[in-house]
Amino acid sequence: MDGQVLVLHDMLGINNEFHPRFLRRYMNLYDDIKTAVGKYITDVKAVDFPNDKEQY
Known about the structure:
By secondary structure, this protein is mainly α. The chain has one domain (8-48). The protein is built from two helices and no strands. The N and C termini lie far apart (58 Å). The relative contact order is 0.13.
């Protein structure tokens, strides 16, 4: 009997460094997450987030 565990993070490509041959990636979220976090950091450092429209 054989078994395999496919972790959601691996399947969605969140972990960019894990490449076993049994893994089939259905998305590459690593790049999207890295880009989004980079934009967030840039906006916070520029004091553009949160702005007046995004506060109560």
